[in-house]
Write a structure and sequence with these properties.
7% strand, 56% helix, tt1808, chain A, 17 strands, Rossmann fold
Length: 1063
């Protein structure tokens, strides 16, 4: 007899005979359990199959688990049946197990076998017992299959993501109302790899994904659940209520945990997943938009719970708001202590991601084919911009490449399409205009929702249309005190609304347009809107813009004019600029006078920068010279951008201005820093008495001046002038003057100058610099004398000068004494800081055979100092095989404590590119040593911006040294560095958990790797950045980045011959 026959022939008739009617017997091959607010059906033998459920008075009384006569009725069978009974609602108090030969009745609450039933007793357990038993049942039940917990998380995610995720079966128009459209979603490979690493290996429980508005954080958050191999819940900060843990508990309110606390639920669920070697993951998108007053405190609590229970939490946040979750009054919050680092920083698309996104959009929206290569459009690397352009192209039935990403028409069409999704559309437009008005009036980029409600005349019962947020027009967020704010999603939308919809600048008459610009250019949103208007405007609109700036009261301090010219000078044609140049220059000079001592000269620097951009305009030279005269009289001349002024003055040569500059140069009362730049400015100008002025400056007491007139000498040189310098050398009362004269004479083109210096070698106390000048003049008769001087005292300052001379005048005769020094005196030379000179001299004079013998010697050398000298020599030889040898030795740590110092000399290998193998070896060393200075110096000769950007990301966050000196990277690589690193750098600036040392390193690099996002981040995060450095440091960095971006933009405009682009 099988199990089914046993049930139908024996058990069912028996149950009927003892009083159960048909309505009280339920025959099920499956049963359901409550999962959150949904019910999930458990099917199949592996999940849970009960044979008969007996009810009495509508309540579950007994389940009968029947076995075939050949199966045993044992403890395992009883445990399985009892776990089923405990999961029912209400819990069935009895379990019957039978195989026809043997039957047992069990108490569901105690798991004990029942010999006699107390018919009068209560079968309901107390609350504690109920919860404990249901928890044990859950562990037992899901122990057979984790699919049940995954089913719950799937149901929860579908519901939570519904406001954001488009259904694939819906019409395209309906799908476009959602942020996450699976058909359009590009896989962000690096971001996904970072998340997978976090889930698999991270010890800390929290991963933060931060980035600017529109970079795809929500899309990534919606993609993650399907990509993660673990049960995952999803919550949106935009829609979260007051309590996150209460929301989780409510969604997890299964029948087996109806009365439990949120922490108890998480403890049980994580125990369950841990038993199956899985993680339980919670994703919270847009925490900055969460309305809870105490959201930072709640996230602190969640991070502590997650750390204790092994829960994994992934957060997303806009980078400008991220610092508020990390610190409170300068003290790190608990969330910061539980963060996995580095933070996941999401930015623009890579080139491959952009191409994929365009391909997906073309197919999904059935876009018209392109005639050109639209994938080269850098603007389309921004996810939001690409989304806007593709929607417009689809709606208007035009090719993607024909939609200009910065034109007014694009934003107008996008607003029309977006506002059409709000109900009614007129309310959406009213909200945008009211918000823009408010931002303009309070010179801010956000305002409180209560203020916006008041401006709109809404009551407390009226809400702003949610579609205006979901469509990407506006964003809302709440601060730690619970005050809700609203801002524009994208700056160009804000600029368009202010300039076109509020200012009506495109339709106003000239006088009204200029009046509006004059009034509103003093505010930050106002100047941004005007710049946008000018960049996308006609010549008449641009002319009116400049006229307004030249006349307006709001631009009296020069700051707005400086911003206009620095960021937007490439927008305006020469004809337009010349019409208002005099008035602009007058305004700027007056502002410069007032700003000379403000905020460390930062504003003065900006004004100088703006004037320097008008060098092609009449009147610019006179203004610049007047600024030099003002700086010369200033007690604070060092910080006023004199080098910028001097560089700009090089382009001019008017007699009047030249005479004024020469007067300044002659005046010993003027600071030498100022006069050295004046020397640069007048070097190529025409004026009388240049030789006499030169000789007078040679004797000047300020070393700054003499150093900067050295370049004058070759053009002035005559025999009489040379002899006069020799006299000055012979009679010099200070070694400094004698040294500087040697430097001048080393530039001589007269044949007998070398001999004239050589005969003075044994008569002068200035032997070292005489040796160097003789060598630079390639005076070969001095060869043996140099060898003699080196052998007599190689470890003195004179010995170092002789080695420098040998490197300037290579000779095979130098090789033997230099090798002797390498093999016997390397350590002493290192102490005397002559190792570089020795290596350079030997590399320049040695033959290939000598050098390869030294390479063999390196393999056996056991002394770090000796190895270092040998390594330097091989680097300076500029030989492919020797470079391989040095790099391999670096990776093997052959140079010990000198490895980083040697690495810093790698750029001297020459202008050639490194091979793939050499780059790999170099990467390994940089990752191993984490030296920012090594990275900086290595980057000096690198033209591969992507390679350098990758190393900056990896090395900078964990570097152990500080930046020293200026960064001399190739200017050509800077645009690529900005494109690759701007979002990353901005996120790092906003990370308040960074150490002071890492902040200092980052600020030094920002002018090279930062862009517009970084500039915004500097302004947002100035408080915590200044705490790590100083306010002056942050201000200097902001100005340096400001200038660099303006320079790059100007070059870009020149190369592209385009007047419709703005930084």
């Amino acid at each position: 007899m099988n199990e089914e026959t046993f049930k139908n022939a024996i058990v069912v008739p028996f149950l009927r005979s003892v009083g159960f009617d048909e309505s009280e017997l339920v025959f099920e091959s499956t049963f359901t359990i409550q999962l959150g607010r949904s019910r999930h059906t458990v099917t199949g033998k592996a999940h849970g199959r009960l044979d008969i459920l007996c009810k009495r008075d509508g309540n579950n009384l007994l389940i009968a688990e029947l076995k075939a006569p050949s199966e045993r009725v044992d403890t395992n069978a009883a445990r399985q049946a009892i776990s089923y009974a405990r999961l029912l609602e209400p819990m069935a108090p009895f379990v019957l197990i039978s195989n026809g030969h043997k039957s047992h009745l069990f108490n569901t609450l105690t798991s004990e076998q029942i010999e006699q039933v107390d018919r009068q007793g209560s079968y309901r357990p107390d609350i504690d017992t109920d919860l404990r038993l249901r928890y044990e049942a859950l562990l037992s039940f899901v122990g057979y299959s984790l699919d049940n917990l995954i089913a719950f998380s799937t149901i929860q995610r579908q519901r939570a993501m519904r406001p954001f995720e488009a259904a694939s079966g819906d019409a395209i128009r309906s799908q476009l109302t959602k942020k996450f459209i699976p058909a359009l979603s590009v896989e962000r490979t690096e971001a996904l790899e970072r998340v997978h690493h976090f889930v698999r290996e991270a010890r800390q429980p929290i991963l933060a994904c931060i980035g600017p508005s529109g970079c795809g954080k929500t899309v990534l958050a919606c993609q993650l659940p399907a990509a993660l191999p673990a049960p995952t819940l999803f919550y949106s900060g935009t829609l979260l209520g007051e309590s996150l843990l209460s929301e989780i508990a409510f969604d997890f309110n299964l029948t087996f945990s109806a009365q439990e606390s949120d922490i108890s639920i998480l403890r049980k669920v994580t125990a369950l997943t841990r038993a199956h070697q899985k993680h339980f993951i919670i994703i919270i998108d847009a925490i900055d938009e969460w309305r809870a007053n105490n959201k930072s405190t709640q996230l602190d609590r969640l991070s502590a719970v997650a750390a204790q229970l092994g829960l994994k939490v992934i957060l997303t946040c806009k980078d400008e708001h991220w610092p508020q979750f990390l610190t409170e009054r300068g003290i790190s919050r608990p969330l910061a202590e539980h963060l996995d680092v580095p933070i996941l920083q999401l930015g623009t698309f890579t080139q491959a991601e952009r191409s994929d996104a365009i391909s997906r959009a073309t197919a999904f929206l059935n876009l018209k084919p392109e005639n050109g290569r639209v994938t080269d459009n850098e603007a389309l690397r921004h996810p939001f911009t690409l989304r806007v352009v593709t929607e417009i192209a689809a709606n208007d039935g035009v090719p993607l490449g024909s939609v200009h990403s910065s034109s007014r028409l694009v934003l107008q069409r996008f607003l029309e399409l977006s506002l059409a999704k709000t109900s009614p559309p007129s309310l959406g437009q009213r909200v945008l205009v009211a918000l823009a008005h408010r931002l303009l009036s309070q010179s801010s980029f956000h305002c409180t929702i209560d203020v916006l409600r008041q401006d709109l005349g809404l009551t407390l019962l009226d809400d702003l249309p949610n579609e205006i947020f979901l469509s990407g027009l506006l964003l809302r967020h709440a601060d730690n005190s619970g005050i809700e704010y609203v801002t524009f999603y994208h700056s160009h939308i804000r600029d368009y609304v202010i300039a076109i919809m509020i200012g009506r600048l495109s339709t106003s008459e000239s006088s009204a347009r200029k009046r509006w610009i004059s009034i509103h250019s003093g505010s930050s949103p106002g100047i941004d809107a005007v710049l946008y208007f000018a960049a996308t405007g006609t010549q008449d609109e641009q002319r009116d813009t400049l006229e307004a700036f030249a006349e307006g009261e709001a631009t009296r301090d020069g700051e707005a004019i400086a911003r206009l010219l620095s960021w937007g000078v490439g927008i305006f044609s020469r004809d337009i600029l010349e019409g208002v140049a005099d008035r602009l220059l007058s305004r700027l000079f007056a502002a410069f006078e007032r700003a000379a001592h403000d905020d460390g000269g930062v504003r003065a620097h900006r004004i100088v920068d703006a004037i320097c951009r008008l060098v092609s305009i009449d009147g610019a030279e006179r203004t610049l010279v007047a600024m030099v005269e003002l700086i010369a009289r200033s007690a604070n001349s060092v910080g006023l951008g004199m080098h910028q002024v001097a560089d700009a003055l090089v382009a001019f040569d008017s007699p009047e201005c030249t005479a004024r500059l020469v007067t300044i140069l002659r005046d010993p009362k003027v600071d030498g820093y100022v006069r050295r730049y004046v020397a640069t400015a007048v070097e190529r100008r025409t004026f009388e008495g240049r030789t006499e002025l030169f000789l007078g400056l040679v004797m000047d007491a300020d070393p700054n001046v003499l150093s900067w007139i050295r370049s004058w000498y070759p053009a002035l040189e005559t025999s009489s002038l040379r002899d006069r310098l020799l006299e000055i050398h012979d009679t010099a009362k200070t070694s400094y003057v004698a040294k500087e004269v040697c430097k001048l004479l080393a530039l001589s083109r007269l044949q007998d100058t070398g001999h004239a210096l050589f005969v003075r070698l044994d008569l002068s106390k200035n032997q070292g610099w005489l040796c160097r000048a003789i060598a630079e003049l390639d005076y070969r008769p001095a060869t043996q004398r140099l060898i003699s001087l080196l052998r007599n005292d190689p470890f003195s300052n004179l010995g170092g000068d002789v080695m420098i001379a040998m490197s300037e005048m290579p000779s095979v005769e130098f090789v033997s004494p230099l090798i002797d020094l390498v093999t016997t005196g390397a350590k002493r030379l290192l102490d005397a800081r002559s190792n570089y000179w020795l290596a350079q001299a030997l590399a320049n004079s040695a033959t290939k055979e000598h050098l390869h013998d030294l390479a063999k010697y390196l393999h056996t050398a056991e002394d770090d100092d000796l190895s270092y000298c040998l390594g330097l020599t091989m680097l300076f030889a500029n030989d492919e095989h020797l470079l391989d040898t040095v790099l391999e030795a670096l990776v093997d740590d052959k140079f010990g404590k000198h490895g980083d110092a040697l690495l810093a000399w790698l750029p001297v290998v020459g202008q050639r590119s490194l091979s793939e193998r050499q780059l790999q070896l170099l990467e390994r060393r940089l990752r191993m040593r984490k030296s920012v200075m090594a990275l900086i110096v290595v980057g000096t000769r690198m033209n591969d911006g992507i390679w350098l950007a990758k190393l900056v990301r990896e090395v900078l966050p964990s570097a152990t040294d500080d930046v020293k000196g200026e960064i001399g990277w190739n200017q050509d690589v800077r645009p690529k560095l900005r494109a690759e690193l701007d979002d990353w750098a901005a996120s790092r600036l906003l990370d308040a958990s960074s150490s002071d040392a890492s902040v200092r390193r980052l600020l030094e690099l920002i002018p090279w790797i930062g862009g517009r996002r970084s500039l915004e981040a500097l302004r947002i995060a100035d408080v915590h950045l200044a705490r790590a450095t100083s306010h002056e440091w942050v201000a200097r960095t902001e100005h340096a980045l400001y200038r660099a971006l303006a320079d790059d933009e100007r070059q870009s405009l020149v190369h592209s011959d385009s007047r419709n682009r703005i930084a």
